[in-house]
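Here comes my example:
=====
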Amino acid sequence: MIPLDRLMIETDAPFLTPRNLKDKPADGRNEPAFLPHILQAVARCIGKPAEEVARATTNTAMAFFRI
């Protein structure tokens, strides 16, 4: 229900590695490198293509942080 122009994605780094991550790191540390995995999960949940969600969430983050 969150509009794409209000949605940002993140990891809970360094904690809470995604449960369904196929290849989990041995030390269990969550990394920003897992954002593509988070993106895919969000896109599935909202029924939009991952590319569209990536573009929109990047734009939202850039506007929010004024970069």
In short: The chain has one domain: 1-8+29-67. The chain is about 40% helix and 0% strand. Helices lie at 35-46, 50-65. The two ends are 26 Å apart (CA to CA).
